[in-house]
Design a protein that fits this description.
By secondary structure, this protein is α+β, with helices and mostly antiparallel strands. Helices cover 48% and strands 17% of the residues. α20 links the parallel β20 and β21 (528-532). Mean pLDDT is 79; it is low at 1-12 and 619-647.
Amino acid sequence: MPPATRHPSTGNLLGQLRRYPLVAATVVVGLVTAGLWLAGAGDAARWLGSGFALLVAARQAWDMVRDLLHGTVGLDVLAVIAIVSTVVVGDWAAALVVVLMLTGGEALEDYAGARASAELEALLAGAPQDATLDDGGALRRVPAAEVRVGDVVVVRPGEVVPVDGTLVSASGVFDESSLTGEPLPVTRAAGDGVLSGSVVGADLVRVRATATAARSQYQQIVDLVRGAAESRPEFVRLADRWSVPFTAVSLLIAGVAWAASGDPVRFAEVLVLATPCPLLIAAPVAFLSGTNRATRHGIIVKTAATLERLARVRTVALDKTGTLTRGAPEVVRVVPAAGRSEDDVLDLAASAEQASAHVLAHAVVTAARERGLAPSSAGRVREVVGSGVEALVHDAGTQRSVVVGKAAYVGSVAPDASAPELAPGELAVLVAVDGAYAGAVVLADAVRPDAAGTVRDLRAGGVGHVMMLTGDGEVTARHVAAEVGIDDVRAGLLPAEKVAAVSSAEPRPVLMVGDGVNDAPVLAAADVGVAMGARGSTAASQSADVVLLHDRVSDVARAARIARDTVLVAKQSIWLGIGLSVVLMLVAAFGVIPAVIGALVQEAVDLVAILNGLRARGRADEVRLPTSSAERPAPAYVPRQPATLAK
């Protein structure tokens, strides 16, 4: 009884009946038999009701055999026995109620599965299907799958970018909220990367494809979510195995009731309360709901089985660079020389560096712009690879010779230059103006502002052992670890040594979080591998069990919390349904509950269990996302504790 892959129609009654023809047939037969009975045609009503019930039982038995051939043992045998036994004892009305419960349960399962899959459906619906190619000035519409690397794609306002690419137009505004969760539109300049799944703003743009649709960002996310939705968790297979002892207990209670009373009707009355066909679907519904709840927060859990392991994680290993730190250099402070201001030094440095493609130059220019500074134009730019940049900067109508770079390079033109005192992991870019030392810009791979909170949340959730695995040096690694609250630091590790550390870690299961290509082996070796950032290493994302689409390490703790909630709801749903069924069977064994009433009561039990499973989809998180500027991470130029620039 697989769940539906789309929402059930919410239209008129006729549409619903067409969607569930067996339910409709059961309702029609029930009405006809009721009419015949009221008209005094009791024999006709009995034969029609009994015959239809036996036909449904035969269909269900055939489905049960097919499931057994595929290695699945379910509770359908109880439904079949209940239908047959009620027909044999002459209670054809109860048989029809059991049939309605059975077919209605399948419809309810379909609805629950479709509701739990809402996020997947929304994701699939948003997948771009077509693209407009600019073929030498002539525009032609083609399927998105036909776009090749190097093709220029024209995307109109409001359309979805079909493939990953680089922006050809001078600029463009894009809504990337479906990919990154950032509600504000972003502006891209010519040459900047553009992700598939982004929605174009008010102006038409041209994008040169750098990947096919199948290998683009949006399709990879869709594939990950689809795989998670279609997977079958180990916990659910365990729930299936519970059906075997449940069936045996149900038959035992029914048999004892028959033997003790000498009335075969008791056997039927007990079994109609032991036919929870959709009961154990509550576990798959809960896991699917939990998977989709994670998706809403940008957490892609590749297989539903991962949720069960994630809920039991007791050791967490964290990579440093790109995981606990941002993975890119940022300006952490500016140290001006006497007589100069921080803004003056940063502005001059950015003016000279803006023509450089070096990663440190980009960080300096970004910090200046975040401070609201507008770098001045520069000419006669000369870059010495590995040393620095020299340029003539036009400042307030005058030209100044600005040199930015390493201490030795700047010291060659400004003998008074001296590097400031640096903390572990920091480096300084010195600035000289007209042959005189002007100051220094200090950069570091800053620790993420949510890193320490994530470690605390993991421990609060039951993780007993947190460790850092990094290829960086011991001093810098321990500096970062102390800031985020990690005692177990393993520094200077090669990829193979990271794998060995995770393989020998206790207690288990072990969760590993990383982002780079060198993290792919250890992510695959961990019980649960988590890859940071959808735009990070493809190798890491492919080898991980969980992919975090948003660049937030706090989502690691969020994923673990969702997993714990999901497993708890699944267990509650299973035991709730089984417990209520057993209690009702024991009551029915004394002849208190007639078969017809028992069948209706059991339907209510099934409904309660499934609705409880859906709670895994809608449960609110304890930690909300930042919604105001005051809650967002501080700008890069605000002084903070540094980390390191090396992996």
